[in-house]
Amino acid sequence: MTKKLTISVVLAFLVAISLHSCRSEDLLNTSEEQQPSKFRVFTAQEKETINYAKGFKTLLERYDEINNVQHTAKALKKALKNSSEMADEYVELNIRSQDFTTKTNEKFTLFPLIKNGKVDGIIIAILKENDTQVEFLKMYPEVENYDKMLGLFKEAFLKNTLQQRIAAKGNGNCSSDGSPCDTGEVVITMPGTGGGIPGGIWNGGPPPGGCQPYDNCLNPDGGGGSGGGEGNGPENGPTTPANPCEQTKGMLQDQKVQNIVNDLKGHMNSGAGGEKGWRLNKIGAPTQTTQNSKHSVNFGNPSTMNGGYHNHTGTKIDIFSATDISALIDIARYQNIGDAENGFMGLVAPNGIHYVIHFNGSHSELPVTGSLDNNIDEWNYFQIREQWDILDNDTSGTYCNVGENKLNSKGLEKIFFSTLKRMGLENKVVLQKINENNSVSTINLNSNGATDAVPCI
Questions:
Q1: Alpha-carbon distance 210 to 93, whole Å?
Q2: Rounded to two decimals, what is the model's pTM?
Q3: What separation in angstroms does the CA of 294 have from each of 297, 298, 403?
């Protein structure tokens, strides 16, 4: 290729840059002017009190109507008349909990999910991001107090017998189409003390997003809200994700975490052998794992955890295994809605090895529950095979310590990112390395397969 450009080409290039710069500025200004719109149904008029349960009902029924799908009884009745393909479950929007408000002023209401004529689950309807984003999730059965909440909804649903609907019809409490009566609020006692939203994911539900997919924007143009109700990419997640550097630096300053890391280092130095683990619980002090072996620990119920820490022994692979990554995913599932990245997993190993991982996405981007389980052993085997390949072929010492038959940090990180790719989790997990002085670096994978450590400032 020639190293010289003609004057005309250079001028054309400069003009292109100028036009690009102007266009970028125009787009920036447009973005700044166009703010996310709030929902009409959640905007009070004068002294009016907002009925959030009614608002969620309006939105979900409207979404079904626009997209010709069936998440509601209203849409199912329409599908039955038209003899179209029908869903096998729906949300009973005439039965609901009281409205809840979190410490960060998010609103949510619970509704029963009906399948085969019975209450089969609980739907969480959430209004967040300063009333500009709505999300519908199916509550995880592992959530504390779940069975009791489900039982209350079952009781309310059973009260809506045909005879009761006929009797109540004259009082104006039931619709003429035979839908369940408006039972009023099913009073639910929410689990935990954190004031957050219980975990869940509804793979068949509407994607999270702004007012446009529901045709319910307060502003005529719908604003510039994220999500838009389409796709499954990061735009549908939280608009202000946590900074992984600040997260990990703050975590390492927690005395509980410092004590755990020191305990694991002491365990490795004691010569006792094997792995040891700690659970950082949502409520109460950290607790040790009880099912430990030579090369594994069992963290137990992920719904009660914010994170976990364990050690590797220096005799296999001293980076997160597929089992460890899967455990992180399960912990992330049970974080408050919008905070999936708060779940973490820490690892210490001989020779000063210390890493932390976080999930890097929203709840809607998590793998389907159980989808990783069947391939864990295969992915762990590939880690071992990749280690052998590196040790056999890397004569330059790029990925291993020559003469020691051990992977260095570059080699461990290479294997970790290969494992993420096999698990379908590329760009969904943040890897951070903790140095001897507790400084943190984020490990990035380059296009050539090598890794770079970017210090957290």
A1: 20
A2: 0.54
A3: 9, 12, 26
